Amino acid sequence: MHSNILEKNVPNWLYKKLNFLNDFSSLYKTRPIKNNKGGMLFTHMFYFYLILKNLKPELVIESGVYKGQSTWLIENTLPNSKIISIDIDLNKREYFSKKSEYRSLDFKYNEFKNLPDNTLVFFDDHVDHVERIKQSNFFGIKNIVLEDNYPTNEGDFQTLKQISNNFNFNHKPGFLSLTKTYYQFTKIIIKKIFLSKYNSNIDLNNINQRIRDALHNKETTSHLNDLFETYYEFPPLISNYQINEMYKSPLLQETPKDILEYSDELLDYNFITYIKLK
Ligand SMILES: C[S@@+](CC[C@H](N)C(=O)[O-])C[C@H]1O[C@@H](n2cnc3c(N)ncnc32)[C@H](O)[C@@H]1O
């Protein structure tokens, strides 16, 4: 069954999706990172562009910068908006924005003062979606975009789509990763023993993100539903071999000629989702 329990109040502006495709593909040709494997590709960039163009938030906070393609997109779609770009590892950047304010502290630890009402936060950081919704609600941020909203048994962290099926994500890191985590945890314990002023919270949070087991109770979906004014998962742009009951019908029947060059990228689709909180 198509797992879309949370979907509600599809916003009107989404019906005009295709009007933006030409403009977007012209912009996309000028992207700074031509190989963005592991990051955002055509479909996700297009839908994010569509959201930004329609909502025009005065401030965009992005969590998950990687090489910087999404930072570039925000900057070029909304030249008059402020940008805060967060990544716990900013060393992977290849595109550096002069406009964006870069931060390396996890979203939840940040101070966000005097946020404009239409602030939008974009999560592409593989952190538990339920926690991110709670944190956004705490900061009073109403517009949320989630990348990688994978269904049950897919993905590498807890997503909203999974929790709507009462599925708690159970992470299976590899042996090497667990060994590294063990080493990092041991360092924390040693610091705790010898440094009386050491506060381990950020380091323990990092450990928690290396082993991403999630545990939410059965009421979580209903609590989330109470918070949501809108929940909309974008469809794939084109059909591909993966399409099954987990996927919505694709937006396009055929790939338009001017985006044929992105055929490979169009196969990459990770359930990008827009949420508006009440
Ligand atoms: C999928 S990539 C982001 C792709 C990027 N948005 C793009 O346009 O291609 C995920 C990024 O999230 C970062 N990340 C991991 N944990 C994070 C956290 N707690 N907060 C912010 N970023 C985090 C990783 O370092 C990685 O660079």
CATH superfamily of the largest domain: Vaccinia Virus protein VP39
The backbone outline, from C-alpha atoms, is globular
Bound molecules: S-adenosylmethionine
Averaged pLDDT, please?
93
* CATH architecture title of the largest domain: 3-Layer(aba) Sandwich
Main β sheet profile: 7 strands, mixed
Q: Please write the CATH class name of the largest domain.
A: Alpha Beta
Q: Please give the count of helices.
A: 9
Unreliable spans are: none
How is the largest sheet built, in terms of strand order? Answer: 3-2-1-4-5-7-6
CATH T-level topology of the largest domain? Rossmann fold
Gyration radius, in Å? 19 Å
Share of helix, binned: 25-40%
- Number of individual domains: 2
* Spatial separation of the terminal alpha carbons: 28 Å
Per DSSP E runs of 2 or more residues, the count of β-strands stands at 7
Beta-strand residue percentage: 5-15%
The secondary-structure element order is HHEHEEEHEHHHHEHE
Structural class: alpha/beta
Describe this structure in words.
With 278 residues, this protein is of the alpha/beta class. The protein has two domains: 12-169 and 215-277, Vaccinia Virus protein VP39 (Rossmann fold, 3-Layer(aba) Sandwich); 172-211. Helices cover 32% and strands 12% of the residues. It has nine helices and seven strands; from the N terminus they run ααβαβββαβααααβαβ. The protein has a seven-stranded mixed β-sheet with strand order 3-2-1-4-5-7-6, sandwiched between helices. β4 (120-123), α4 (129-139) and β5 (143-146) form a beta-alpha-beta unit. α2 runs parallel beside α3 (69-77). The chain is globular, with a radius of gyration of 19 Å. The model has no long low-confidence stretch (mean pLDDT 93). The structure holds S-adenosylmethionine. The site of S-adenosylmethionine has 21 residues, from α3.
